[in-house]
């Protein structure tokens, strides 16, 4: 009789342990499945750097035209402007170089790089001038073939708007604000693509 009770007791413990192990395995599987579904939904909604930079391919090529920049109160610098734009780093980076001329002399030279941070899902921009100045700028999509970029200055903020006009020309305008509320025109550029 004692052996039967011991056997029954051991069987009950065994069944209880099997139940608990199965419960734990089921819970673990449910939790893992939930985590994987959450991660996959996040990944599906993300844009790769190549996809993001591809949205800027309307700027690729060689461009030529006119630019006007406000350099001080009542002072406007007019330039014969060239822009060269290409993809680099496995199409994960947009490389831009601008050159501005007055009477066949280069008076402006700048390089800009646009990349896309897949973790933050944001564009990033850095630019350098031949004078040694450099800046990190924000760069964001405003619409189809329409982007805004800008940065802060010690005395205010500056922003630029890039788009193609109805004739397929690169149209870019810039504005300066001392306080982020009132904006003043500071730059205009209109370029046509050089057909090769």
Provide a descriptive summary of the structure in words.
It is a single chain. The protein folds into 2 domains: 1-45; 50-193, Lipocalin. The protein contains 2 helices and 10 strands; from the N terminus they run ααββββββββββ. The chain has helices at 2-44, 49-54; strands spanning 61-72, 75-88, 93-102, 105-117, 122-129, 134-143, 146-153, 156-164, 170-177, 184-193. β9 (170-177) and β10 form a beta hairpin. It has a 10-stranded antiparallel beta barrel. 25% of the residues lie in helices and 52% in strands.
What labels would you give this structure?
196 residues; alpha+beta; Lipocalin; 2 domains; 2 helices; elongated; transmembrane helix
Percent of sequence in beta strands: over 45%
Radius of gyration, in Å, reads 30 Å
Label the CATH architecture of the largest domain. Answer: Beta Barrel
Count of structural domains: 2
CATH superfamily of the largest domain: Calycin beta-barrel core domain
What fold name stands as the CATH topology of the largest domain?
Lipocalin
Sequence of secondary-structure elements: HHEEEEEEEEEE
């Amino acid at each position: 009789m004692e052996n039967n009770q011991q056997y029954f007791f051991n069987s009950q413990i065994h069944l209880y342990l099997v139940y608990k192990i199965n419960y734990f395995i089921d819970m673990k599987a449910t939790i893992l499945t939930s985590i994987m579904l959450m991660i996959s939904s996040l990944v599906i909604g993300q844009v790769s750097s190549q996809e993001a930079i591809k949205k800027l391919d309307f700027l690729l090529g060689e461009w030529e035209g006119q630019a006007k920049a406000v350099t001080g109160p009542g002072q406007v610098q007019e330039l014969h402007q060239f822009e060269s734009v290409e993809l680099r780093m496995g199409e994960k980076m947009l490389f831009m170089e601008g050159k501005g001329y007055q009477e066949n002399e280069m008076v402006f030279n700048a390089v800009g790089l646009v990349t896309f941070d897949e973790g933050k899902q944001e564009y990033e921009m850095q630019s350098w001038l031949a004078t040694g100045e450099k800046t990190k700028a924000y760069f964001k999509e405003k619409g189809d073939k329409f982007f805004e970029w800008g940065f802060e200055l010690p005395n205010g903020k500056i922003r630029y708007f890039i788009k193609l006009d109805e004739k397929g020309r690169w149209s870019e305008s810039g504005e300066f604000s001392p306080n982020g509320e009132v904006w003043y025109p500071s730059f205009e550029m209109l370029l046509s693509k050089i057909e090769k």
